[in-house]
Amino acid sequence: MNAKRLTGLIAATYTPFDAVGQLRLEQTPQMVEHLIAAGVSGLYVCGSTGEGMSLTSAERRLVAESYVQAADGRLPVIIQVGHNSVVEAKQLAAHAQAIGADAVSATCPSYFKVQSAQLLVDCMREIAGGAPNLPFYYYHIPVLTGSSIDIAQFMQLGGQQIPNLVGLKYTDTKLHEFQQCLKLQNERFDVVWGCDEMLLGALASGSTGAIGSTYNIAAPLYHQIIAAFEAGDWNEARALQNQAIEMINAIGTFPFHSAMKAILGMLGYDFGDCRLPQRALTPDEKIRLRELLCQVGFFEGFVTR
């Protein structure tokens, strides 16, 4: 399948909830406008950041629809459809195609562990078959799925057996493996980086696109990293990447996505709290989070408002 490659910063979007944890999708258009203004070049919906695994399938359909409608064709929308039920994931993929999404992506089932690269291909072929007209990206995030399959072997086999497999969302820290996947079959696959704190290393390894959570709040910082890299100013690029690391470390002092939602609130985007099993930050924790962010200069030029 010929598909346009994902480039630049793709925001892994958050799902808005109200005070009692129900969907508050009237917030979606405001967030999409904010991300477009920040120069984000795509939206990755219902992934880990968007708490896709904590939503019902009916809710996932509604969230997907809200982002596709709000984007209105101005930037690509990728819908993450992974589910412990392969049948359910295939149905979510079909829905994504029906509503006009630009691509689908999926994690592997994680309760019953996938035991081989071929079995992973079998699962992803079934899911991708729900949206045969859309590009399909496998979502490799072993820290959450527990899958230890050789990802390069999967891509080799998948390229032969999954007609619409075009790429990979690579959310791991093994730059050598990421680079290996980039080079497979004469650079056939669109391999998109997924660890914000290592963006510079990924750029040096050949990345041209990245999907991440903190692009929701600090896209200007990452744009400056990319600009410094492209200009060959390695000292500046390293300094900027270090600022991103300091920001991420401050956020990671707390439950990460709960802290990110608290930051969205500080910036004027009320997306509520995360659903269980993730917990909300306490009022004292929110105060401490703001203090830590001030210490690393978060509100002084790199934040997306």
From TrEMBL:
GO molecular function, one term: lyase activity
The keyword Transferase is assigned to this record: no
Keyword annotations from UniProtKB, A to Z: Carbohydrate metabolism, Cytoplasm, Lyase, Schiff base
SMART domains cross-referenced by the UniProt entry: DHDPS
Keyword Cytoplasm: yes
Gene3D superfamilies, per the entry: Aldolase class I
GO cellular component: cytoplasm
Active site: Y139 (proton donor/acceptor), K169 (schiff-base intermediate with substrate)
InterPro entries per UniProt: Aldolase_TIM, DapA-like, Schiff_base-form_aldolases_CS
Places the protein is found: Cytoplasm
Positions contributing to pyruvate binding: T49, I211
Membership in a protein family: Belongs to the DapA family.
The protein, known as: Dihydrodipicolinate synthase family protein
Organism: Blastopirellula sediminis
Organism lineage: Bacteria, Pseudomonadati, Planctomycetota, Planctomycetia, Pirellulales
